[in-house]
Amino acid sequence: MTRRRLLTGSVGLGGVAAAGGVGYALAPPRLKARLGLGPEPFVPDAPVGQVRLESVTSQARGRDVQLFTAVPDGYGDGAGLPAVVVLHGASATAADYPAYGLARFLTAAVAAGAEPFVLAGADGGVLRWEPDPTSDDDPQAMVVDEMPRWLEDRGFDGERRALWGWSMGGYGSLRIAELQPEWARAVAAFSPAIDSSDAVISDAPALVGLPIGLWCGTEDSFYGPAQEFVAALPQPPEITSFSEGGHSRYYWNDQTLDAFGFLAKHLTA
């Protein structure tokens, strides 16, 4: 299911009037311009299932963090479902995920035929999802060591895991997969914040055999390093998408349904 297919059909003025709602997000840009409304990133018109935002104690980070979980609509509390672990960018936290519409994307992907899974993500700070050399703060260890237990405690299948992140989180997802090759069944990275000198490029051979999907806009400042990363991989990614777009949620939201379909396929038992 692509954004284009979900947008097929008409959107009435009644849906547009509620600015910030899903109808508004789906309204054609020309109609929003005529109404004097600014553009909004795409969010599918899909129901929200069970969503939780709770505080948990992370020993790895030495603090309490916010933990977001979402179950697709129609799947109750998500018992036994595998998980896509979400790694945010530097300007976001787990508390932003509901407003980003991640739960709606999840339901829309499953309704379009993807095998059901849950989303789970916790606050990682701004450390690029790597250990802080000046303290005991280690968001990477939080993901690798603590997230599986948090998933199991909530009834999900903590053994079937995939990674998805954007910007700093895209980098973090790839780096964790390199350092922990058996941890994730697949990785989806949006506009990974990679520098040409980063070890994530030189260590790319460690990703041999791992299904990878990578999306980056051609107007993104990380477009060049993303190409270098792809060239360094031991095999081509299962999905490589370099299309028009910048480093923004407008671009990332347009790719999310494709990424969820890709990850769901590799989480099937």
The biggest beta sheet reads: 8 strands, mixed
Quick one: CATH class of the largest domain?
Alpha Beta
What general form does the structure show? globular
Report the helical percentage. Answer: 25-40%
CATH architecture of the largest domain: 3-Layer(aba) Sandwich
Summed up, the domain count is 2
Number of strands: 8
Instruction: Return Rg in Å.
Output: 18 Å
Strand order of the largest sheet: 1-2-4-3-5-6-7-8
The span between the termini is 22 Å
- Looking at CATH, the homologous superfamily of the largest domain is Alpha/Beta hydrolase fold, catalytic domain
Roughly what is the average pLDDT, rounded to an integer? 90
Features of the shown structure:
single chain, about 270 residues, alpha/beta, Rossmann fold, 2 domains, 8-stranded mixed β-sheet, 11 helices, 8 strands, disordered N terminus
Architecture overview:
The protein has helices at residues 3-7, 13-17, 22-26, 29-34, 97-100, 102-111, 139-153, 168-179, 199-202, 223-232, 249-267, and strands spanning 51-58, 63-70, 83-87, 118-122, 161-166, 187-190, 212-217, 239-243. An eight-stranded mixed beta sheet has the order 1-2-4-3-5-6-7-8, sandwiched between helices. The protein is globular, with a radius of gyration of 18 Å. It folds into two domains: 1-40, no CATH class; 47-267, Rossmann fold (3-Layer(aba) Sandwich), CATH 3.40.50. It is built from eleven helices and eight strands. Strand 1 (51-58) and strand 2 (63-70) form a beta hairpin. The protein is of the alpha/beta class and 269 residues long.
